[in-house]
Amino acid sequence: MRTAIARGGAKAHKVDLGVGDLALVADEPVADGGTDLGPSPTELLCAALAACTAMTVGLYARRKGWPLEDTIVHVDRVAASGEPGAPIPKDEIHRKITFVGPLDDEQRKRLADIAEKCPVHKILVTANVVRTHVDP
After folding, report:
1. How far apart (Å, rounded) are the C-alpha atoms in residues 54 and 120?
2. 71, 99 contact by CB (below 8 A)
3. 3-class SS of residue 73
4. Torsion angle of the four alpha carbons 91, 33, 45, 14, in this order, in degrees rounded to the nearest 10
5. Which pTM was predicted?
6. What tens digit of pLDDT does each residue of 25-58 get?
7. Closest Cα partner for 71 from 50, 88, 46, 54?
8. pLDDT tens digits, 57-89
9. Residue-wise DSSP of 2-61
10. Among candidates 27, 35, 29, which has minimal Cα distance to 8?
């Protein structure tokens, strides 16, 4: 797996991203103080889940020889809103999947089950550890 590298953010929200030889940009919308030159980090996270879902179910359908013509995945984050004194609320990620093609109900159900196994989905629903090391 290639390492992701981010550079910037000191003078503005815009950050240049690199993944191997690939270049991307992350930013925030103008309303949030950015220049809207790219998706926000949260939007990139949602896009990662959408992409991984489509790739995972597509791979499975191809292996099975199923007539999946396209997969459309919509992912949105709904920020938690908690009341004082209530347990810490959690954000929700809503994913809507549309399978295009002459699939039967059993195939659609199986593809929905396979979507739950995409690697990004597993990362998001599992308690993970992020270890941060700061260079001296």
Report:
1. 11
2. yes
3. strand
4. -160
5. 0.89
6. 999 999 999 999 999 999 999 999 999 999 999 9
7. 54
8. 999 999 999 999 999 999 999 887 766 666 767
9. PPEEEEE-SSSS-EEEEETTEEEEE---GGGTS--SS--HHHHHHHHHHHHHHHHHHHHH
10. 27
